Amino acid sequence: MTAESKLLTMRDAIARHVPSGSIVLLGAQLEQMIPFAAGHELIRQSRRDLTLVGPISDILFDQPVGAGCISRVMSAWVGNVSAGVGYCFRRAVERGIPRRLEVVDYSNFTMALALHAGALGVPFLPTYATLGSDLLKKNRNLRDFSSPVSEEKLVAVRALRPDVAILHVQRSDAQGNAHIWGSLGVAVDGARAARKVIVVAEEIVEPSVIASDPNRTLIPAFLVAAVVHEPGGAHPSPVQGYCGRDHAFFTEYHEQTRRLEDFEYWLARWVVQVTDRTEYWKHLDASRVEALAVKEHAFSAPADFGC
Amino acid sequence: MARSEANLAARGYTFGELMVAAAAREIGDGELVFVGMRLPMLALLVARRTHAPGAVGLFENGVLRETPSTELLYTMGDPPNLRGATQCGAMLDVMGLLQQGRVDVGFLGAAEVDRFGSLNTTWGYRNKEMQRLPGSGGACDIACLARRTVVLLAHDRARLCDRVSHVTSPGFGSGEGWRRAQGLPPASGPSSIITTLGVLRFGHDGEAFLASVHPGISVEEVFANTGWTLRVADELMETEPPSDAELRVMRELDPNHFWTR
Description:
The structure holds 2 protein chains of 2 kinds.
Chain A: H1 10-17, E1 23-25, H2 36-44, E2 50-56, H3 59-66, E3 70-77, H4 87-95, E4 102-105, H5 108-120, E5 124-127, H6 134-138, E6 142-146, E7 153-158, E8 164-172, E9 178-179, H7 187-193, E10 196-204, H8 207-211, E11 217-219, E12 224-229, H9 247-256, H10 260-272, H11 277-282, H12 286-292
Parallel strand pairs in A: 1-2, 1-8, 2-3, 3-4, 8-10, 10-12
Antiparallel strand pairs in A: 5-7, 6-7, 8-9, 9-11
Helix pairs in contact in A: 2-3, 3-4, 5-7
Chain B: H1 2-11, H2 15-24, E1 32-34, H3 39-49, E2 56-58, E3 63-65, H4 79-82, E4 87-88, H5 91-99, E5 105-108, E6 112-114, E7 119-120, E8 123-126, E9 129-132, H6 139-145, E10 148-152, E11 160-161, H7 178-182, E12 190-194, E13 198-202, E14 208-213, H8 219-224, E15 231-238, H9 244-253
Parallel strand pairs in B: 1-2, 1-5, 5-10, 6-11, 10-12, 14-15
Antiparallel strand pairs in B: 2-3, 3-4, 6-7, 8-9, 12-13, 13-14
Helix pairs in contact in B: 2-3, 3-9
């Protein structure tokens, strides 16, 4: 018996699985494999009152914040990794433009522990990280306590269970068994902590391809609600083995979103007036697309699972 | 910029290159190094190719590298930083090593650093208005848990301040005994602050002092650009300029001084 395919278009996946008010994990693999195509679809479908969760989502947090989709961010870092600050994030926090934004500040480690606690099914996990910092004073999900087994003070990091984790992966089968390699960040814990997962894949492969290398199956299908086949869905972030990082795009975003009216123009051009990812790629110059292609493949040695 | 170019013409290196060389010398052979982006990444490469061939780099995305990437990186997640890595794990793997006390040195940048080495990367002030900055990332974790922390930043009166307005990443707090009272690990804390004018180190009381000034920089200039009354080492040194070997490595990877203006 063949399991049912979970393949959906990005439009349908977001429509069905990410209602307004959801807690959404994005950018689990840090600077790689950031699900920009999904973020843009959230904006096009005018989601409101979302909570964004993630350690560092580069400019993917800045864009829906600027579009007014977000009421809360739980994160270690929000900005533009290679170019500096995120102007939409700043406008929202400092001046409530386009709407007020609540920020719950984590460090990378405490964000990873919050998701790990969610993945393990425990209410909190202990750490020394953030002791003595203002993060501990201001984030109510971080509480210091006395260790019950030693004479020490520790921080309890409250478990986080996102409603949905959106993860860009290299390849998946139609049921959602997914291979990821390279930059893992908090992807594995994020998938387990979330109540459901949307997998966005560069390639859809046969289940036999996934089963040929089970150590690389970091997301099992039973966690997955939808699979979207969206090659290039992570641009301008890189996907190891598939697409380079478009450094200039991040710099241009920085320059083109400094003023509110410039951001609105940027948003119309790259998101609102674009129907889907195929059309988005048509907006990129041919020379740019060519420069992002993998120049030299570097395949790993095959692992022998024979018996 | 103009001044940096003048320095390059007159002395044969830029301030950025001097800072990278100083940072590289903070890395010992065989040490586990939590690398940030930009200057620290170059510092690790310089250290590995000169005095510390056995130093290993850790990145927050879970990457562990024993050999340098062959291309200039903009972020730790750039594909060339993963290709040829020794290990690509999860964030918790490298953070676990950090919390175990196995990471010898971590590098950090900051908007503000204070006289006890605490860092602020969350809130800035310009023209008396609050500015929201990106936040901690892994900086707070490194500042809490690495055995030594090295801070790199431009020397400016507004950025080297008496007390930071927001403690994103704790240094020695209010001085001796503060870290222990907070519950932070005993073998941890700021080790040096490398600026565009000199190198600051920390006394037993947890307060920073001026350990060396860069060639051509006067102590008065350092004082004028520091937001508290800075103490000076009994034997103030001049920062050793970058050697030919160190400059060769930097310029191989950053020939146009993209990171090392």
